Amino acid sequence: MSSEASAVWNECLRVIEQHVSEQSFSTWFKPINPVKLEGTSLTIQVPSQFFYEWLEDNYIQELKLAIKTVLGQSGRLEYAVVVDRGNSANQPYVVSYPQGNHGNKKANVTSSDAQDQKKSPFQMESLGDEMLTQSNLNPNYTFSTYIEGDCNRLARSAGFAVATKPGITSFNPLMVYGGVGLGKTHLVQAIGNEIKNGPEDKFVLYVSSEKFVNQFMDSIKDGNVKSFTNFYMQVDVLIIDDIQFLAGKDRTQEMFFHIFNHLHQSKKQIIMTSDCPPRDLKGLEERLLSRFKWGLTADLQMPDFETRVAIIRRKMQSEGIFIPDDVVEYLAYTVDTNVRELEGILISLIAHASLNRVEIDLQLAKAVMKNIIRDIETEVGIDFIQKTVSEYFGIELDDLKAKTRKKEIVIARQVAMYFSKEFTNHSLKSIGYHFGGRDHSTVIHALTTVNDMMDTDTNFKNSVNELKKKFKMRSY
Ligand SMILES: Nc1ncnc2c1ncn2[C@@H]1O[C@H](COP(=O)(O)OP(=O)(O)OP(=O)(O)O)[C@@H](O)[C@H]1O
């Protein structure tokens, strides 16, 4: 190592130190060795191709600034990457970037070893999205933007505990599972952001399982497995999304098993998500599954109506738009599949309104919704009420009209009559007619019974209210 190169690099480090966190500085800049200085071109040696890619993806601005400050406008930076070749001696090859060409992955590679040029480097996929930071975290996914409800209370509070004391609570690993679009990624990234922005300087890394698998495969192809493993073993908080993707990928599972053990033993935090509970994860090794159960497993459910309203309002706030209450309610009633879909519909609604320069109102919401969800019924008729009520109580539609006097059928029939009175313009006589030709006094008796039961039986009242929401939504 030339002493000139050392002196220049030390100056560069002083500049860099002022612009990155202490943890990043020791992880990404301390391991670098200055190799040589030729004119205003400084060559630094980095431990692996991955390390080099990481620097280029995440610290290009800091490096540029340092080189320009120390070597002037004509300053250049070249990298010598130590290639891991198992037992054979490490031969560096040089990746050379002309000034101002940093970050261009197609830049010339001049190698001291022709073979190495052809190797596709083990690299983190380009992060692309400027929203992502060096931990691959979306800064918008925070606890403050994550609406709490019965659907996520346990997972959220466990997540918050982990964020406060990563690696120390008994929630290690923390496994969050739930159906598509229910907020798994948002929650685990909120934990990551909370830790990253906290007082301790922790290296937090979020990675999808798919990316993890691809990186591992690339590392095998490139003979870089060691640097892959070393990299993951340095992490303080590893967040790995959609773990079900590891199913059937035995080699990756084995590697993950070692990384998991190392991190867990070193009291580093592991957070995972999955689309199903660990017991239903097919194609995952038993030893891995048993480790997943060491910590806490918490599920996410579809948010209830009130939580959906709160999610819509939060989204409106972040988009800086106003939507009338009846539209918010309409959307929350109608979209009960998952939160991503709810957000998607809200965004289409906003887009329609701004493209057509019209106000967002119920009419527009219905029109947008009709395009998206087929078969949506906008009117409540007796047929619809009968169908919905019979499905809800798990009885045959025909039984509502039949003579049978079985208790559960009588109740369902009375409830259906009650809603027919509330949501349609049919007379008592007509309602009776639609329920197997009963007379109007039977309908009156049904209405009285339902009202009385709602006063005395909370479960029954909840069922009626739940059904009411379905009808209300369609009667807008
Ligand atoms: N409780 C919540 N509060 C606020 N926003 C939420 C909530 N739950 C989900 N979202 C939003 O819903 C969208 C989908 O969430 P996310 O991507 O986290 O779901 P996921 O469960 O990881 O989905 P997938 O199964 O496809 O990986 C995101 O925009 C997220 O911000």
TrEMBL record:
Domain AAA+ ATPase, chain residue ranges per copy: 170-300
Residue ranges, compositional bias (Polar residues): 98-114
Stretches for region Disordered: 98-118
Protein name as it appears in the record: Chromosomal replication initiator protein DnaA
Lineage of producing organism: Bacteria, Pseudomonadati, Bacteroidota, Cytophagia, Cytophagales
Source species: Algoriphagus limi
Membership in a protein family: Belongs to the DnaA family.
Protein origin, superkingdom: Bacteria
Function: Plays an essential role in the initiation and regulation of chromosomal replication. ATP-DnaA binds to the origin of replication (oriC) to initiate formation of the DNA replication initiation complex once per cell cycle. Binds the DnaA box (a 9 base pair repeat at the origin) and separates the double-stranded (ds)DNA. Forms a right-handed helical filament on oriC DNA; dsDNA binds to the exterior of the filament while single-stranded (ss)DNA is stabiized in the filament's interior.
